[in-house]
Design goal:
Elements lengths: L3 H19 L1 H6 L5 H8 L3 H13 L39 H14 L12 H8 L3 H11 L4 E5 L2 E4 L9 E7 L13 H15 L2 E10 L2 E6 L2 E3 L11 E5 L7 H9 L5 E4 L7 H7 L3 E5 L5 H13 L3 E6 L5 H16 L5 E6 L13 H18 L6 H34 L5 E4 L2 H13 L9 E3 L5 H5 L4 E3 L2 H13 L5 H4 L4 E2 L3 E3 L17 H4 L26
Parallel strand pairs: 3-4, 3-7, 7-8, 8-9, 9-15, 10-11, 10-12, 12-13
Antiparallel strand pairs: 1-2, 4-5, 5-6, 14-16
């Protein structure tokens, strides 16, 4: 007996897919999102979406081929390519089967802390619903992980292996220092990185030991406490692993990584400078893993998907520091994201190459002298209770330089922002980082404009200063990031991602605040609905290859 309610759901699902087929963005691509994403968009089950696709295939509105994306037929007379490169998911390069891709996704979720060591995994039914995978595909993926990071505790019962460090374990953290043995700060979130790493080590019961490297000519000097030497300290041989930050005035990767890897301990490197030496080093040292966060292209792709979902078809990318790797990667990834959305989606770059230098690396004795004179005048009104001038000046010095530096950058950036403001089709400004976004926020405020009423404004880094002005930004989620780093160092052999020659990128999240919203008079677009659904923001997904229809019919059980 037919179920009229079920038929109605199927009909509504078919109409939803037809709307996607008619969408210019997906028509330009030539294929649809994956079944899982479309099912989430339509609010139906994975099976109902599969039936809807088969209905449209019978009407010649879709082409379904095993192991490939769900394609939109081309007009008659137009030649079809043998294989569209966009049909291959670049993050799954070299993986041929759905269960292999699922295995890597489970490993990535373990690295990011979704499934923590020592905890039970959800049931097979829940895992299948989470990943949109069949029971057989899920079983194959879990079976490949058994004995390593995944433990099998009985029929349908799996857990993540409990990774415990050896007693009195020490992790050596190598960072850039100065000639006096003090830590140098090369990014706006150095304190946040050090805090997140320390918290993760404390949670895992690991002692964190800091070792500073100082470039001196063509050699490196190592500082530990008050002692400096030209070789790695002997106590480093007792550490269970090393974590190297590459933020420095020069590329220290070709000199430091071989020294550390030769000790036979796992080495994790935070690639923040875009070193070109990693492919060669990966082939030489099997105990090396490379992680990326700030120079990754993922944040910009996520931000582009988020803005497209809000309805912004033309955006501006603004950067005064475009000679940096992170700025160039963010522009390229944002352009790739919008280019993939089809005609009518554009990114307009407005860039300068001022050279990124933090303000407290500069000296300005005349400004300090002027500050002294101003405080001397203020002292007369206070009398003898006025605190010592020297202490006040030393505390104000970095803040004063920061204000002077930002005003100078804004002065250089002003003409570029004036040009960007004249393009009325642009409804959102994507700034290279929060510092740039704050400069743009000040520029708009002086013009009498207010985000998001007049223009959406977003940045990257999620700094405290940006939060104070209610800036929408990208948070790199360092606690989750360093959970993956420490997990990789504790047990490198059991994760296939650890053996990959590709850098490991753990996604952060978009923190939406008051400077972003739909364009004036606009509405959110369905083209990026799956990018903004769920608990975290993700790129506009064209659908993973593993979301396509099965490669063949299931074998009947005898």
């Amino acid at each position: 007996m037919n179920n009229p309610g079920r038929s109605r759901v199927l009909e509504e699902t078919v109409e939803t897919v037809k709307a996607l087929i008619a969408d210019p963005a997906w028509k330009a691509r030539g294929y649809l999102p994956g079944l899982r994403d479309m099912a989430r968009l339509a609010g139906c089950s994975h099976y109902t979406m599969w039936k809807a696709v088969k209905v449209l295939e019978s009407q010649d509105l879709l082409e379904v081929r095993p192991g490939r994306r769900i394609r939109i037929p081309r007009p008659e007379g137009e030649e079809e390519e043998a294989l569209d490169p966009s049909e291959v998911d670049p993050s799954q390069a070299g993986v041929q089967y759905k269960w292999e891709r699922l295995r890597r996704q489970i490993e990535m979720d373990i690295l990011s802390g979704t499934f923590r060591p020592g905890e039970n995994l959800p049931t097979l039914k829940e895992l299948g619903a989470r990943y949109g995978a069949s029971f057989l595909t899920l079983k194959k993926a879990l079976r490949a992980l058994e004995g390593g990071i995944i433990l099998h505790g009985g029929p349908g019962a799996y857990s993540v292996a409990s990774l415990r460090p050896p007693p009195r374990s020490t992790l050596v953290y190598l960072a850039w220092g100065d000639e006096n043995g003090q830590l140098k700060f090369g990014t706006p979130f150095d304190h946040e990185i050090l805090g997140a790493l320390g918290n993760e080590c404390a949670r895992a019961g690991i002692r964190l030991e800091k070792l500073l490297y100082v470039p001196q000519g063509d050699r490196l000097l190592f500082w530990h406490g008050r002692k400096a030497q030209t070789t790695l300290p002997d106590w480093c041989r007792e550490a269970f692993g090393f974590l190297l930050r590459t933020v420095c005035s020069r590329d220290v990767v070709p000199e430091l990584v071989p020294r550390l890897a030769s000790l036979g301990k796992p080495v994790a490197v935070l690639d923040e400078m875009g070193s070109q030496h990693f492919p060669k080093l990966h082939g030489r040292y099997s105990n090396l893993a490379v992680f990326r966060h700030t120079i990754s292209g993922t944040p910009a792709r996520q931000m582009g998907a988020h803005l497209a979902g809000l309805g912004h078809r033309e955006v501006a990318f603004i950067s005064p520091f475009h000679d940096t790797v992170w700025s160039a990667n963010r522009l390229g990834s944002l352009q790739d994201c919008y280019r993939g959305l089809g005609p009518g989606y554009r990114v307009h770059p407005y860039i300068l190459n001022l050279g990124y230098q933090l303000p407290f690396e500069e000296e300005d004795s005349s400004a300090v002298e002027n500050l002294y004179q101003a405080l001397e005048k203020a002292k007369k009104g206070w009398g003898e209770s006025f605190p010592p001038l020297q202490g006040i000046v030393e505390k104000l010095r970095p803040h004063m330089r920061s204000v002077v530096w930002r005003e100078w950058v804004l002065e250089q950036l002003n003409p570029t922002l004036e040009v960007a403001l004249r393009r009325k089709e642009t409804t959102a400004w994507v700034c290279a980082d929060d510092d740039t976004a704050l400069l743009c926020w000040e520029f708009l405020r002086r013009k009498g404009l207010r985000p998001p009423r007049d223009l959406t404004l977003v940045g990257f880094d999620d700094t405290g200063e940006g939060a104070r002005v209610d800036l929408t930004s990208y948070n790199f989620d360092f606690p989750k990031f360093f959970h993956g780093v420490v997990l990789r160092l504790l047990d490198p052999p059991s994760l296939s991602l650890a053996r990959s020659r590709q850098p490991i990128e753990i996604e952060g999240r978009i923190v939406e605040r008051g400077t972003s919203g739909p364009p004036p008079g606009g509405k959110p677009q369905p083209v990026a609905a799956w990018a903004t659904s769920g608990s975290r923001a993700s790129p506009v997904s064209p659908g993973n290859v593993d979301d396509t229809l099965p490669r063949g019919k299931r074998r009947k059980r005898g």
